[in-house]
Every structure is written in structure tokens, then in C-alpha cells.
Amino acid sequence: MLRRLVIFLAIAAVALAGWWVLSSWGRTPTPWGSITIDGRDVTVSYTGSECRDGADLSFDESATQVVVTVHETVRAMSCSDVGVSYDLSSRLPSRLNGREIVDGACLEEPWKSRPACGVKSDVTIK
């Protein structure tokens, strides 16, 4: 009985590790073009890959700013360079309350120095 439990736990650990690797593989931060915040509801528009498998928003909050990051997952080995416009919505953990909005992808290489990460002028707060 104990041997079966050990084997089961080993298989479960391998499956969990495989799921984690596959779920994060191909997931990269992508700059957003515009953002609308209505209360705690957030919608960003961004240009992403036509071969995307999925995307999500994450938030990192401090007393002075909210970092909003689009994470796009693309696992295709080859894809055209055609950009596709997408909208992605989520809910802030807490209200903006005057805090600065920062594009999280623009804090990381290779985006830091690219034009997509200049001053964000398309910010709408309702």
C-alpha cells in the first residue's frame, strides 16, 4: 500500500512539474497600446501575435503606482510577423485612487528602449 502511494505521489509530482513548464513556456510580457480603467475594471488594447495561444493581465500594486502587464503565450515554432489587435479585460484588486499606471512589459528587456514603451498617452480613467 505504501509503495503504491509513493508511486502515485511521484507520478503526480512529475505531472505537476510538466504542467508548470508547459503553462509558462512561450509566455512573454507584451506592451499595451491603450488602457481604460472604470472603477476596478481594466481593459487594455495591445498588438500581439496572430499565433497566440492565450493572454492574461497581471497587476503589481504599490502605494504610488499600479504596474499592468499583458502576458501573451505563443507556442508556435513559426509564425508570421503580422500583428493582430486584441482587447484584454480584468479587475484590479483595489481602486486606482490617483496612482500612476505603468506598462509592466516596458520595465523589462527587450522592450525598455523600444518606441512601444514611450509615454503612454492613450489612458482613459472613468
Structure, explained:
The protein has one helix at residues 2-24; strands at 27-30, 34-38, 41-49, 54-61, 65-73, 83-91, 100-103, 123-125. It is α/β, with parallel strands linked by helices. Strands 1, 4, 5 and 7 form a four-stranded mixed β-sheet that branches. A hairpin with a 2-residue loop joins strand 2 and strand 3 (41-49).
The percent range for strand residues is: 35-45%
Q: List segments where confidence is low: pLDDT < 50 over at least 5 consecutive residues.
A: 20-24
Determine Rg (CA atoms, Å): 19 Å
Order of helices and strands: HEEEEEEEE
Tally of helical segments: 1
How would a textbook summarize the main sheet?
4 strands, mixed
Counting DSSP E segments of at least 2 residues, the number of strands comes to 8
Measured between the Cα atoms of the first and last residue, the distance is 61 Å
Structural class: alpha/beta
Shape: extended
Overall average pLDDT: 82
Share of helix, binned: 10-25%
In short:
Helix content is 18%, strand content 40%.
What key phrases describe this protein's structure?
126 residues; alpha/beta; four-stranded mixed beta sheet; 8 strands; 18% helix; 40% strand; extended
What's the topology here?
Blueprint: H1 2-24, E1 27-30, E2 34-38, E3 41-49, E4 54-61, E5 65-73, E6 83-91, E7 100-103, E8 123-125
Parallel strand pairs: 2-8, 5-7
Antiparallel strand pairs: 1-5, 2-3, 3-6, 4-5
